[in-house]
Amino acid sequence: MTDQVAMHAVREKLAECAMHEKRMLTAAAQLSSRFPLTADVFAHLDDIESSFVDQMVYRFSKLQDTLGEKIFSGILKLAQEDVKGKTFLDILHRMEELDLVKADSWLALRELRNEIAHEYAGDDEKTVLALNSVYTRLDELAGIYRRAAAFIADRFGV
Question: For the residues of 40-72, what is the DSSP string, one character each?
Answer without folding.
Answer: HHHHT--HHHHHHHHHHHHHHHHHHHHIIIIIH
